[in-house]
Amino acid sequence: MTKAFGKLAAVEARLFLREPAAVFFVVVLPVGLLLALGSTIPGFRDADPSLGGQRFVDAPFTGMMILLSIVTLALSALPSALVLYRERGVLRRMSTTPVRPASLLSAQLLVNVAASVVATALTLGVGHLVLGVPLPKAPWAFAMVFVLGSVAMLALGLLLASVAPNSRVVQGAGAALMFPLLFLAGMWLPRALMPEVLRRISDFTPTGAFGQGLVDALGGHAPQPLHLAVLAGWALAAGLAAARLFRWH
């Protein structure tokens, strides 16, 4: 069973790498935005007293670029690939084999977590070398937030793929979810500037908890227990729902 799962994951990895658009939006775009905006907007490189003397590019902006990569992967690349499998009859043929839905979803989850690790490592590495962005000051806290947040977002993408009837619907639904979730994470309006009610709503969204956890860990602070609990809850609920609602046809 383990050998079969390994082969399935290897196939999914090769298929992912054959999609240049996915690689661009998940890996190249966030790194490019970090370099372009971080090097051209002077305010991003100035010490900010409200951030404890850190520069905006050091934690908040870098954290948002990591979040952007994973959200794009979870709500666009992953569900689109699975729904396309369904439309082309790949899943129908697979349903006649011993492969179970949970195995396919787990393989997709594994491949996309690996892609998010690569994208995050490149974002941190390039940011550190070019812009002097410090590496995570709380590496274990960063790893915990990264794993929980990635699994929560990818499980949400699997759920979307499980219920979407076709590729047009999944693309539209993914975009409809992505932009408000990025807003609630603080992508365009930092959470510190949000009204109290909006910030409290953000605390209970997967992107709000994930984004703040990344920023905290990058800045050397422990993530808030509430945000870790929210991420774990979203990962569990979305993952179980995806496995239960998944349709081969």
TrEMBL record:
<feature type="transmembrane region" description="Helical">
    <location>
        <begin position="21"/>
        <end position="41"/>
    </location>
</feature>
<feature type="transmembrane region" description="Helical">
    <location>
        <begin position="140"/>
        <end position="162"/>
    </location>
</feature>
<keyword id="KW-1003">Cell membrane</keyword>
<feature type="transmembrane region" description="Helical">
    <location>
        <begin position="169"/>
        <end position="189"/>
    </location>
</feature>
<keyword id="KW-0472">Membrane</keyword>
<keyword id="KW-1133">Transmembrane helix</keyword>
<feature type="transmembrane region" description="Helical">
    <location>
        <begin position="226"/>
        <end position="246"/>
    </location>
</feature>
<feature type="transmembrane region" description="Helical">
    <location>
        <begin position="109"/>
        <end position="134"/>
    </location>
</feature>
<keyword id="KW-0813">Transport</keyword>
<dbReference type="InterPro" id="IPR000412">
    <property type="entry name" value="ABC_2_transport"/>
</dbReference>
<dbReference type="InterPro" id="IPR052902">
    <property type="entry name" value="ABC-2_transporter"/>
</dbReference>
<dbReference type="InterPro" id="IPR013525">
    <property type="entry name" value="ABC2_TM"/>
</dbReference>
<protein>
    <recommendedName>
        <fullName>Transport permease protein</fullName>
    </recommendedName>
</protein>
<dbReference type="Pfam" id="PF01061">
    <property type="entry name" value="ABC2_membrane"/>
</dbReference>
<comment type="similarity">
    <text>Belongs to the ABC-2 integral membrane protein family.</text>
</comment>
<dbReference type="InterPro" id="IPR047817">
    <property type="entry name" value="ABC2_TM_bact-type"/>
</dbReference>
<keyword id="KW-0812">Transmembrane</keyword>
<keyword id="KW-0046">Antibiotic resistance</keyword>
<feature type="domain" description="ABC transmembrane type-2">
    <location>
        <begin position="21"/>
        <end position="249"/>
    </location>
</feature>
<feature type="transmembrane region" description="Helical">
    <location>
        <begin position="61"/>
        <end position="85"/>
    </location>
</feature>
